[in-house]
Amino acid sequence: MLYSFKPIQSIKRAIDVINCFTDNINYLTLKEISEITNLKLSTTRGIANTLLMYGLLNFDSSTKCYSLGLFFSAKSKLLNKKQELYIQHISPFVEKISDEFSVTCCFQIVENLQVYTIYSSSAHKEHYQIHVAEHVLLPLSVSASGKLALAHNYNLQNIKYALDSKPDNTTDYSSTSVEMLEAKLNDILEKGYSYENQEYQLGVSSLSVPIFNSNGNIIATLSITSFSTYIESILNDVVPELKNQASQIAKLISNI
């Protein structure tokens, strides 16, 4: 039910302004922000000045450019502290799976239908490895962990949201309709794990299992990624072990 309400327009616009700033775009003029957000210049100015007042944006009068403010630096410490606690507890389990099955194993946090990798480990003995980026949101409809989160937050609006936000660079294996995605989500709920077979990138596949809190809500996922033919060959062996490790992780992180 996360996307069953109409967002408050003013807050959404402020978030849109903040989202203009990325790893590659650190500084923007008011006009550039206005063009990116498709907002009137006067509206953009009002939002930017409000964000500036509360430290969410910074303004350089010499260049007339805005950037993200120190507010985010202070708040990020809170998130980093929580993530460090997670990593301290889960890293041995992730590395065990990675080394035992010669795959890239990842731990993802699930919050508000967003899936975010905070730790990954690749098998050290392998010559070829698939790198999975940390601190990047995973797409819901074409990633194993994304579909897992979606399956455990199952409703039509969430499914439509996932399809609408699907990345452009997907493959012909990805879901293109509500019916296709629903069939995959039902299969996930029946089997207890998610299998993404070349939906995001040809030749690469992923498996993911859920991690629940004491209330039965999904809070994280444990996943593996490797070449598609290899994932298929170890499927029957790796799924029970992933579920076993996920169960142990759940006991350790339930109170974090």
TrEMBL record:
- Supply the InterPro entries for this chain: GAF-like_dom_sf (IPR029016), HTH_MetabolicPath_Reg (IPR050707), Tscrpt_reg_IclR_C (IPR014757), Tscrpt_reg_IclR_N (IPR005471), WH-like_DNA-bd_sf (IPR036388), WH_DNA-bd_sf (IPR036390)
Pfam families in UniProt: HTH_IclR, IclR_C
Spans through the membrane: none
GO molecular function annotations of the record: DNA binding; DNA-binding transcription factor activity
The Gene Ontology biological process annotation of the record reads:
negative regulation of DNA-templated transcription
Has the keyword S-adenosyl-L-methionine been applied to this entry?
no
What's the superkingdom here? Bacteria
Ranges for domain IclR-ED come to: 64-255
Could you list this entry's UniProt keywords, alphabetically sorted: DNA-binding, Transcription, Transcription regulation
Domain named HTH iclR-type is located at 8-70
Q: State whether keyword Isomerase applies.
A: no
Q: This chain belongs to which protein, by name?
A: IclR family transcriptional regulator
